[in-house]
Design a protein that fits this description.
The complex is a heterotrimer of chains A (about 100), B (about 290) and C (about 550). Chain A has about 100 residues and is mainly alpha-helical. Chain A contains three helices and no strands. Chain A folds into two domains: about 1-60; about 60-95. Chain C is globular. The chains are: A mainly alpha (about 100), B mainly alpha (about 290), C mainly alpha (about 550). Chains in contact: A-B, A-C, B-C. At the A-B interface, α1, α2 and α3 of A face α2, α4 and α10 of B.
């Protein structure tokens, strides 16, 4: 890494922040409902990836570091998915009011 | 005790190397893996909060949008930029440690601390604003605004017609309760027919929009807002403590291209706190903003 | 590397400094393990006293010894002390701490100061909890279900919750330390597939600790905030969902069941292989089944919530996955059995505990499948069937494995041999007493006796008397090791470096080990559990040598 590259990553992060702000003020529901959420999260994920790969040097790190980063998000996904499978199916089928 | 002195001799250590390791490389590898494991547990720690956010936002999206719209996205956005700058200076601290540049290390640490402090200052401004407007979810923890005679018209109007930009004095709050009188979004969603199943139960009494029931759901949003940003701010404070220690040791010229693990590790922590905010900003401040028109 | 008993005492971790400071500020994993051992034993004793009180109360159908409110506090205290302060740290913090670095040929854990910190956090969390229990305790059950714990309970929920919050970080730091240590501190030649299975089990446990414990930390923190601020996300009065608490609680607490049993499985793998004097059958399968249990353990938490309002579809998924997670446990059972086949089994005390584990865990595991079946569970939920099931896994599994491990490594930890006679008797008593205590509870539960009540119908008294009688036998069996192990500290025969004549790395250093574990960095050239002809570990030949010496 050298200073121009750090500044480049920084620029991406700043642009992402401004972009996410403006994307939030525009109603994107005409694409599909919840498109705003998706856009905001995609930008956040991009920013996070930039920070992790370059500021946290994961890009140059051993595989174990990659693995632990991926694993933690995998476990988060487990928590989200398995909790939501309850909430999203509560109001259907035999429990429908 | 000859056995002892023999062991001492056998395990000669270079300075900075702890007794349990064979060489610096092993030590650095261990510390680095340890730090990442710590970050994994931090991710899961915040993950619990994000799960709660996910569940309630999927149940009560309108309440979350309404609560979100009463946060100031300008301050939130500014804080995001401030944190990103501090992350840059933190990354540069590591860079200058690798380049043996003590003065720039110190400068970058000072800058990182400065931006960290700015972040907390902005947070304080925001919290004060919530306190003034009766948006702290805990009863009695808001500014007490005495009731004036003849100003009860706010209660008469249906909650979906309340002007939410009115100054604070128009909402008397003698006991410092959580106050949220604007349920225009529910009306909007009802008309547009995109209320969720939980919302169709949760916001209505006898088929009418119930301002109090809606307020309770917004209260959940603000509860999550304060817990999430509060824990994040706590992490920032801990980070500032780490930075103070780094500043002292860097000032003494402790770090160079051969030994900069403490900077690198504190940097990982700092960037992690930044990443949490990168998610908190859109989730708390921005989602639902497009409903404001 | 033979021990020298003739002249001066060799320097080891125990006689290397006698001051209080040399213990309290030590970075030596072995001393930290000993301090854990003492603290954990105290908590075990305290939890045991509460258990005895419960069984005494259940002797009669009426709630005569304890009032119902007190009874609630007593079983809550029993659960909290036993789970958070005994079972979870038991094998990892004592045996793991002591043996993991030695087994992989390291001088210490990778982060010794973190290790000491985790002990102090454990102490602080423990003191905090004990203080809260002495102040008046909690009556919510160890699960702290909302809204009971938030809105209705008038007891010290917040204080106990914070005690558990603090204690959680002790477990996180231990897990973190083990993972780092296994990755970076292995001696030359100690490849991953030469690691003793105990280390694999500890590694899998550590994964669960790191990934799960923070979630319970944030959950009890939210609970404490909710009680403190009188507002929160679990409060149904404002539209919150109490079941979310159960989701977040069990996201940790179900995997925590594997924190409580995986290390035990690790100990049993050691015992079965070593006391059969045979290379373990299916090493890779046992190693990876530990990892599989750690991973799948995170996918099944909903089976605690079948009847608490969770969606029936989520229940289906969780029920199916519960059946799946039984597979790796079964793989272990089959491999242990296959290891016994044609082994030269010696029935020393640790092996008695090991065989006891296999029987008890088998019953505990299989009844777990009953409870994972969505239909049956409607009948069995919150009955004594559940109580019996998890005691078979927790006590019959982890505690028995822990006691077996303590006996097995006692000569290594202290350099002294305990009385094999009393050891065998206590192992027998534990096995008999345990079955007498908890088997009747399966029947009671099937008959519909609900848990957590101080009174019950009179026709259930006979089985309850059996259970209480068994509890007293179990109690005697558990107290006995305390006496003869303590006795052996002073009067025990010197054990020698390798009393069981085993090939593991921990048996190749002196007993007790020196502070740096090995005088020379070991180089590992053998596979785990290698009882070869030329390993010098032939039991008959060694016994002959011993006899010749005498």
């Amino acid at each position: 890494m050298n200073i121009p590259r750090y500044l480049g990553v920084f620029a991406v992060l700043v642009v992402g922040t401004i972009l996410t702000y403006y994307a939030a003020t525009v109603d994107l529901d005409f694409i599909f409902p919840g498109a705003n959420t998706l856009v905001a999260l995609l930008i956040a994920f991009t920013k996070m990836t930039c920070v992790m790969l370059f500021f946290m040097h994961v890009y140059w790190s051993p595989r174990l570091i990659w693995l632990s980063a991926v694993a933690s998000f995998f476990w988060l996904a487990i928590m989200f998915a398995y909790t939501m499978q309850d909430y999203l199916t509560r109001d259907i089928g035999v429990f429908m009011q | 005790m000859s056995a002892h002195s023999e062991t001492e001799k056998f395990h000669y250590h270079e300075p900075g190397l702890q007794h349990q390791f064979e060489d610096m490389q092993q030590q650095e590898e261990s510390v680095s893996i340890g730090m990442w494991m710590f970050l994994v547990q931090e991710i899961m720690f915040f993950g619990g909060l994000f799960t709660a956010y996910l569940v309630y936002r999927s149940r009560y999206p309108m309440a979350f949008a309404a609560g979100s719209n009463h946060l100031d996205a300008f301050w939130g956005g500014l804080n995001t930029l401030v944190l990103i700058v501090s992350s840059l200076t933190m990354a540069l601290t590591v860079f200058y440690a690798q380049k043996n540049n003590r003065n720039m290390q110190v400068l970058m640490i000072v800058l990182t601390m400065f931006f960290g402090a700015v972040f907390l200052g902005v947070k304080a401004i925001e919290y004060t604003d919530k306190f003034d407007h009766g948006l702290v979810p805990v009863a009695g923890w808001n500014k007490r605004v005495p009731a004036h005679a003849g100003e009860s018209h706010a209660a008469v109007k249906p909650c979906w017609e309340v002007d939410h930009n009115a100054p604070a004095e128009e909402h008397p709050n003698p006991r410092g309760e959580f106050q949220f009188t604007d349920c225009s979004l529910v009306k909007q969603a009802q008309d547009g027919n995109y209320l969720t199943a939980a919302e169709r139960v949760g916001y209505f009494s006898n088929g009418q929009i119930d301002g109090n029931k809606f307020r309770d759901k917004v209260r959940i949003f603000y509860y999550l807002y304060f817990v999430m940003t509060g824990l994040h701010a706590l992490h920032m404070v801990i980070g500032l403590g780490l930075m103070t220690w780094l500043l002292i040791t860097a000032w003494r010229g402790r770090y160079n291209e051969d030994y900069y693990m403490p900077i690198e590790m504190s940097g990982l922590y700092w960037h992690f706190v930044d990443i949490v905010w990168i998610f908190l900003f859109p989730l708390l401040y921005l989602l639902g903003r497009h409903f404001m028109h | 590397m033979t021990a020298d008993y003739s002249g001066t005492q060799k320097l080891n971790y125990l006689n290397n400094g006698f001051t209080l400071k040399s213990w309290l500020l030590t970075k030596d994993h072995k001393r930290i393990a000993i301090m854990y051992l003492i603290t954990i034993s105290l908590f075990f004793l305290a939890g045991g006293i509460f258990a005895a009180t419960i069984r005494l109360e259940m002797l009669t159908p009426a709630s005569d010894l304890l009032q119902t409110g007190t009874y609630n506090k007593v079983f809550t205290a029993h659960g909290i002390l036993m789970i958070f302060f005994f079972l979870i740290p038991s094998i990892p913090a004592v045996l793991g701490n002591f043996l993991l670095p030695i087994m992989i040929g390291a001088k210490d854990l990778a982060l010794p100061r973190i290790n000491l910190l985790s002990l102090y956090i454990y102490w602080i969390g423990g003191l905090f909890t004990v203080w809260a229990l002495l102040q008046g305790g909690v009556d919510t059950g160890w699960t702290f279900y909302t809204p009971y714990s938030t809105t209705f309970s008038n007891t010290y929920v917040m204080a106990v919750g914070l005690g558990i919050f603090i204690n959680g970080f002790s477990s996180i730091l231990t897990g973190l330390n083990f993972i780092v240590t296994v990755h970076t501190m292995r001696a030359p030649g100690m490849t991953w597939f030469r690691l003793p299975l105990f280390v694999w089990a500890q590694y899998a446990t550590s994964l669960v600790m790191i990934l799960g414990t923070p979630v319970i930390a944030i959950t009890v923190l939210l609970l404490a905030i909710e009680r403190f601020a009188q507002v929160g996300i679990f409060d149904p009065a404002i539209g919150g969902d109490p079941i979310l608490f159960q989701h977040m609680f069990w996201f940790y607490s179900h995997p925590a069941v594997y924190i409580m049993v995986l290390p035990g499985m690790g100990v049993i793998s050691e015992l079965i292989s070593n006391f059969s004097r045979k290379k373990i059958f299916g090493y890779e399968f046992i190693a990876f089944s530990s990892i599989a249990i750690a991973v799948f353990g995170f996918l099944v938490w909903g089976h605690h919530m079948f009847v608490s309002g969770q969606s029936i579809y989520a229940g289906l998924v969780f029920s199916f996955l519960t059946m799946v997670v039984a597979v790796p446990s079964a793989i272990k059972m089959f491999n242990w059995t296959a290891t016994l086949y044609k082994g030269s089994i010696s029935f020393d005390t640790p092996m008695l505990y090991g065989l006891g584990f296999m029987g008890l865990f088998l019953i505990g595991g299989l009844t777990g499948l009953f409870l994972g079946a969505m239909g049956l569970v409607v009948h069995l939920t919150d009955t004594y069937f559940v109580v019996a099931h998890f005691h078979y896994v927790m006590v019959g599994g982890q505690v028995v494995a822990y006691l077996g491990g303590i006996h097995y490594w006692w000569p290594k930890m202290t350099g002294k041999m305990y009385s094999e006679f009393w050891g065998k008797i206590s192992a027998m008593l534990v096995f008999i007493g345990f079955n007498l205590t908890f088997f009747p509870q399966f029947i009671l539960g099937y008959l519909g006796m609900p848990r957590r009540y101080a009174s019950y119908p009179e026709e259930m008294q006979v089985l309850n008397i059996f259970s209480s009688a068994g509890a007293s036998v179990l109690g005697v069996g558990m107290i006995m090791p305390l006496i003869y192990l303590g006795h052996s500290l002073i009067y025990g025969k010197p054990a020698g470096d390798n009393p069981w004549l085993l090939p593991g790395l921990e048996w190749r250093t002196s007993s007790p080990p020196p502070t740096e574990n090995f005088e020379v960095m070991p180089v590992v050239t053998w596979e785990a559990y290698e009882f070869g002809e030329d390993s010098g570990l032939d039991l008959e030949a060694a016994r002959a040598r011993e006899a010749a010496k005498v």
